[in-house]
Write a structure and sequence with these properties.
The complex is a heterodimer. In chain A, the strands form three sheets. In chain A, strands 1-2-3-4-5-6-9-10-11 form a nine-stranded mixed beta barrel. A two-stranded antiparallel ribbon of chain A has the order 7-8. In chain A, β3 and β4 form a beta hairpin. In chain A, 17% of the residues lie in helices and 30% in strands. Chain A has a domain of 168 residues: Lipocalin, CATH 2.40.128. By secondary structure, chain A is an alpha+beta fold. In chain B, strands 1-2-3-5-4 form a five-stranded mixed barrel. In chain B, β4 and β5 form a beta hairpin. In chain B, 27% of the residues lie in helices and 34% in strands. Classes of the chains: A alpha+beta, B alpha+beta.
Chain lengths: 253, 134
Amino acid sequence: MKYAIHVVLVAAVTVSLVAQESKMQPPTAADWAALAKLPDLTGVWEAPTVGRGGQGPAIGPPPVPQLTPAYAAKKRDLDARNFDDTDAANCLPTGMPAIMGHPYPYEFLLTPGKVTIVTEAYQQVRHIYTDGRPLPADPDPTFNGTSIGRWDRDTLVVETIGFSPLTTIARNTPHSDKMRIVERFRLTGPDTMSVETTVTDAEALAKPWTTTRTLARHRDWTIREYICEENNRNFLDAQGKAGVKLETPAKKE
Amino acid sequence: MRSIAHATGRTLLVTALLCGMAASARAHHSAAAVFDMNAEKTMTGVVKQVDWTNPHIWIWLNVPNASGQVETWGFEGMSPNFLARRGWTRSSLLPGMRIAVTFRPLHDGKAGGMFMTGKLEDGKVLTSAGAEYK
């Protein structure tokens, strides 16, 4: 009996070691070469805005998610309390999906089994695993969630789950732990990319919320440092009131 | 000819400001929460200090008040990241330069506002949307 348990244990440990080992195999020359056959999303991208040669952003009110009655009530309550601004004024990163809607650039990096998106605003990084692993069943909630990606012909399809309750779907619009975000990244020209984002949340949203954004590639740009706490004079206080700190600036010699 | 170019430039920069600022403000904070976006004031003074910092640059201007004393006003601009890609450098404004600043005042009336444009003595105009307009 004791011997049988031993055998089972040894077998289980061996299997898990083998599984881990296969995940940790270093990329081969063939893996690196295979990247060249994928659509080239690499480089620094930003949503074009009027006045600097872009095609123009979608001007006008952005589409608004349709909420379930329970979450519409939550939003009304938050609108009444946090009327001025969001905690981003206190330098709290916005998390997903808002982090992908900033007027700051993103750098896309493709390596074997992974797409990495460096977002300049709030100096954030998104890790998107494209090595075939499934999404974990119950990841710890985080600002940018847990992501996997796969290539659907010319489109990178990214699924993300597991979001911190400190993040929102939109302004004063909380999500449930069922929120799921699917993004479809597709080149539409030599230096343009379409990003279609669909948010589903069976508890919070009456129907899936889809928005589309166009990004332009800037071959001559690099990502800059963005330390929000460097000199943040904006704030949102506990009563939901926004303000600006105007104390005498530090002397610089 | 010059005045037409000037007018076109102004229209462009105002359009750019309206669109660019609205979007950029969302990245960090709501401009309308603290600044009166319907008001525009102009103030002339001497640059005391420029903070070329994230999440916003701050331009500190020494301005004489009605009783002849010097007051320091603070103006919030875009981020160095945004501006450096659009023609500004950290030396575009330096201490000692005399400029006329157009700004959206703070709701609470304190000595500050949101920087819109800065007209230098040589006629060059720096804007929140970029430095390419003159």
